[in-house]
Amino acid sequence: MKMKYFMKNKTLLLIFSSFLILCACTTSPTGRRQLKLYPADQMNEMGIQAFDSMKDEQKVSTAKVENKFVQCVAGLVAQQVPDSVYSGKWEVVVFDDEQVNAFALPGGKIGVYTGLLNVTENQHQLAAVIGHEVGHVIAGHSNERMSNSTLIGIGMEATDQLLKANKVAYNAGIMAALGFGTQVGIQLPFSRTHESEADIIGLDLMAKAGFDPEQSVNLWQNMEKASYGQRQPELLSTHPSPQSRIKDLQQHMSQAKALQSSSQQHPNCTKG
């Protein structure tokens, strides 16, 4: 009886999953097929709520020079975002924290940590980072990740029910192992794909804004130095290695240089 009940529910899950996939398949800016289950308005709302929470929980920098510099660079990059992605004014916040990082969220939000300013040597390198982060938003990567996790959750639930129906011993241990296998086999490489795609989208964004795209290569050379060689193998990392990123950026550089040449922007953002 349990097995019959499970098979019925498994069939419904498969039908539901297939329906979602058929209805939510889209194409990324680089031509890659992707799955987005969530409406843009919902993603924007979640991005805004998350950003507001971060401003409440983390220290916001009040340094005028740092804020002016970041606002200048981020503002020019954000101007290149299609209205179909976000048509409002982007909110840019500098967080007083030594981590070398930045992020962008749906709903027109950009966060930059002060630690990043110690690694980026000039406006062009900061534009490369911000362009990359905004590239995630343009490509809808957060939506895609959530959608992917939703389908993985459906599959995990079905497998768990099958194990229970057949009274398999050490069910929890098997599920934990399956979760790890799923993470390494699907979720981490999936994230590396996103990172590589955001690099290319960001390269074009910074070039359209008038920044020097070749400085993106210098940026990742600086990033590698800042890590002091302490990186886990790329196979188990959600980010490509600096060497892989540099290779991909160089392959796309001629197109980016052409975009910079045709840009009407001449950035002059200084750290002070």
What's the topology here?
Layout: H1 2-24, E1 25-27, E2 33-35, H2 40-57, H3 64-78, E3 91-95, E4 102-105, E5 109-113, H4 123-138, H5 141-165, H6 171-208, H7 215-226, H8 242-251, H9 253-262
Helix pairs in contact: 1-5, 3-4, 4-6, 4-7, 5-6, 6-9, 7-8
What can you see in these coordinates?
The protein has 272 residues and is mainly alpha-helical. It has a domain at 2-56 and 131-262. The chain is built from nine helices and five strands. The strands form two sheets. A three-stranded mixed β-sheet has the order 3-5-4. Strand 1 and strand 2 (33-35) form a beta hairpin. The chain is globular. The chain starts with a helix and ends in a 10-residue tail after the last helix.
Write out key terms for the chains shown:
3-stranded mixed β-sheet, mainly alpha, single chain, 9 helices, 272 residues, 5 strands
